[in-house]
Amino acid sequence: MEFYGTKITSPLLLGTAQYPSPAILVEAIKSCGTQIITVSLRRETAAGRGDGFWNIIKPLGCHILPNTAGCHTAQEAITTAQMARDIFGTNWIKLEVIGHADSLQPDIFGLVEAARVLCADGFDVFPYTTDDLIVGEKLIAAGCQLLMPWGAPIGSGQGLRCPEALRAMRGHFPDIPLIIDAGIGRPSHAVQAMELGFDAVLLNTAVAKAGDPVAMACAMAAALDAGKLGYNADPIAPRDMAVPSTPVMGMAVLS
Known about the structure:
Blueprint: E1 2-3, E2 6-7, E3 12-15, H1 22-32, E4 36-40, H2 41-46, H3 50-57, E5 63-67, H4 74-88, E6 92-95, H5 108-120, E7 124-129, H6 133-142, E8 148-149, H7 163-172, E9 179-181, H8 187-195, E10 200-203, H9 205-208, H10 213-232
Parallel strand pairs: 3-4, 3-10, 4-5, 6-7, 7-8, 9-10
Antiparallel strand pairs: 1-2
Helix pairs in contact: 1-10, 4-5, 5-6, 8-10
């Protein structure tokens, strides 16, 4: 698995918001084996703890994926991305352009516009998008090398609301890395995403707000591994009728 030329072995991308304490955040990151953690530039700088937070996560050796959370226009997202590159020293950016205040659904028009500008500026864009195939095509044409469709609204924990649309997306983009971003609430949701053939899952709230964030981070990592193994094992297709596991040919017939 490669994201913009960087080889990744863990299918879990972990957010860093809302944890009970920095110590629990660090333990969760270490215990689950994630190699990519997301950071909201706006949240950290607004809280006045950007430098301190950076000092906490830098020694962990993870790839930093800054995001443009809270941006509602393409220009806001572009400016935030440029600031994040200066602060964190990476061209990676999780691009969010929010179009609806309640559902936090992406503004697909602003998203494509911002993606085009940032890709041209040398950014490696991880776009938070919907499961719409046409939007996906436009993002790839803009320069994105992967797609991150939502499973459900951010922080909702609903799981995959439209699994058939996501299955169609996997089939439509067979050679593009696909990451489920948002909506995962339980390990079973993570398994389902991987069984659909997705490459990775990005989640935050499901771990940070769990009763035991460290245990949940481990559970999510194990679930993703199980789902990936299951997908690669080529599971049987659903059947309309029962099929006996014991052959009936050659059995004695009593009359």
